[in-house]
Amino acid sequence: MITRRVTRTIRLGRVPVGGESPVAVQSMTNTDTRDVAATAAQINALAAAGCDIVRVAVPDMAAARAITAIRDAITVPLIADIHFDARLAMAAMEHGAEGIRINPGNLGGEEKVARVVAAARHHRVPIRVGVNSGSIEKDLLAAHGYPTPENTTALLESALRNVRLIERHGYQELKISLKSSDVLTTIAGYRRLSRATDYPLHLGVTEAGGLIAGTVKSSVALGILLAEGIGDTLRISLTRDPLEEVRVAFELLRALRIRERGPELISCPTCGRTRIDLFGLAEQVEKLVQAMETPLKVAVMGCVVNGPGEARQADIGIAGGNGVGIIFKKGEIWKKVAEEELLPLFTAELKKMEEEGRKNRKSAKR
Description:
The radius of gyration is 23 Å and the shape is elongated. By secondary structure, it is of the alpha/beta class. It starts with 8 loop residues before the first strand and ends with a helix. The chain contains twelve helices and 15 strands. It has helices at 36-48, 61-72, 86-94, 110-123, 138-144, 153-167, 183-196, 211-227, 242-255, 278-289, 307-310, 339-365; strands at residues 9-12, 15-18, 24-28, 53-57, 78-81, 99-102, 127-132, 174-179, 202-203, 233-235, 264-267, 297-301, 316-321, 324-329, 332-338. Helix 7 packs parallel to helix 8 (211-227). An eight-stranded parallel β-sheet has the order 8-7-6-5-4-3-10-9. Strands 11-12-13-14-15 form a five-stranded mixed β-sheet. Helices cover 43% and strands 19% of the residues.
């Protein structure tokens, strides 16, 4: 069992972060924030996939003003990502941002930081102090050197310096991120930060890469930290559709038994016995289960002979070959059908199980 580190609790809109709250999954849009329709559509797709909190870039005043209309069209908390311009941070909050991400050190001095903090207090908006290894203050780099796994002092001191700057103005509705593109530096930095503060921590590996490299790097770094009880919210940063970030995040949380959402997909790696398009079949099933919430085990197997046995624990599964296929439940054959009927019948039964799960969850809440 994983024992979570004890942290303070803050609220981003309706979502609590820290304390005993579930680890929250975040992502960030890659649309032009000024394009309200496109941004809201992407946020709603992320929310349907289970994303708890979404961040948008605010590069100019038009983007800050667009937040009002975006918020009216979505159901999840919206965070504004600000760099360099304190006016944009204040405008984003005035237009309804429920959280802001800033690096206080690049806002132009303490006076401007004070104005941002005053606006955050007025609007009751939490602040994420976001520090990256590429944005550390020059004096800290000169004193401590560039962050490495063996020496994360500059990264740590940058984060704590910026937190103290906000605290001097009487505000503590904070969470902190301390990111590097290097996996071992990220792990070492967050370990030190978790010992130095009880603020909730946002986990991530910055500039992690594409689907494969980014998934591996993020899963290693965040998986180790989460297994040690460190982390209250996270983003898997990928050079990819943001929906992929959410999928990877939930698979990571599921693997650690921290949080489950929707079906777990089990599929075999294929072998010489496979006589169906298993890759295509698995991909279609994977897309199907993304919008589901019932925690089922779903199997897609390439061999009728071994499929049910190898995936005996699956609630439902399919296997096929040579023009025929089977649908099985808990290791027992439920139906044998022609291959062209396999996916439609399986889809209908899986949706039926999802609906039953939804009804059971509703009944349990009453």
